[in-house]
Write a structure and sequence with these properties.
This protein has 248 residues and is an alpha/beta fold. The chain has helices at 40-50, 64-71, 92-97, 100-103, 121-131, 187-194, 205-214, 234-244; strands spanning 9-14, 34-35, 38-39, 55-60, 80-85, 108-112, 115-117, 136-142, 150-154, 160-165, 176-184, 219-223, 228-230. The protein has a seven-stranded mixed beta sheet. Strands 2-3 form a two-stranded antiparallel ribbon. A two-stranded antiparallel ribbon has the order 7-13. Helix 6 packs across helix 7. The radius of gyration is 17 Å and the shape is globular.
């Protein structure tokens, strides 16, 4: 099967500014905010390198030069990095499509440049994808109410049945939230290319996943263990500092 075998590629979406960070991102894109002595994005790349990822396609946007000048071609970190620039902020599905030429028909890990998780989750996630034939494995985390993210409904085998993006508060009857990390076959690109604009006017990856499910493709949920943080606010940044500092 095309794309079967060990996953060595990753696409990291790092185009956003992070407006909720207020003045902290006036000159620096959110993935370059420093936590425990390193930019957020560097923590992510090093963790993924330890999990066996060798090649990265990083999607940049706001203050792209800060990311590209810091990481270069990746040789300093012992990996290969290429960049694709999102000129128009029209959604995550369009951002992911920019990496299609770099990935080709290979399977890949998808992540965001501002999402941190317990490092042990990454090899476990990759192992889950490689162990069971499917079109993808999406990491999920348990929350009281997934209204700020995407509610993920699964069956008894952890097969995803549906995903509801930003449901109104207290309406979801699942506690699983889209954790923003996954491993997918290249079929995801086809479904990203076919999605329609969301009510927010953006082309979004959860809609592409919904399209995959509608086409009969199997995508499984992978429950994360340990810490997870979508570093979106100064308070999140402080929490990440506590989690990642050597004394934590």
């Amino acid at each position: 099967m095309s794309g079967a075998g060990l996953v060595r590629d990753a696409v990291i979406l790092a185009a956003g500014r992070g407006t909720r960070m207020k003045g902290l991102t006036e000159d620096v894109p959110k993935p370059m905010l420093v936590v425990a002595g390193r930019p957020l994005l560097e923590h992510i790349l090093l963790t993924l390198r330890s999990a066996g990822i060798e090649r990265f396609a990083i999607i940049t946007g706001y203050r792209a030069e800060r990311i590209e000048s810091h990481f270069g071609d990746g040789s300093r970190l012992g990996v290969e990095i290429v960049y694709r620039h999102q000129e128009v902020r029209d959604g995550t599905a369009r951002a992911l499509l920019l990496a299609r030429d770099a990935i080709g028909d290979r399977s890949f890990l998808l992540g965001w440049g501002d999402i941190l998780a317990e490092p042990s989750n990454y090899p476990a996630l990759l192992g889950a994808f490689e162990a069971k034939p499917s079109s993808g494995v999406l990491a999920v985390n348990w929350v009281d109410d997934p209204y700020r993210g995407a509610a993920v409904y699964v069956d008894a085998d952890n097969r995803i049945e549906r995903i509801i993006e930003k449901p109104p508060p207290k309406t979801a009857d699942t506690h699983w939230n889209n954790a923003g990390i996954g491993v997918f076959r290249a079929a995801l690109f086809d479904h990203c290319a076919a999605v329609k604009p969301s009510p927010r006017g953006e082309y979004e990856i959860p809609d592409a996943l919904t399209s995959m499910l509608g086409a009969g493709l199997e995508v499984y949920a992978f429950p994360l263990s340990g810490f997870w943080s979508d570093v979106g606010t100064p308070e999140d940044l402080a929490r990440a500092e506590r989690l990642l500092s050597p004394s934590a």
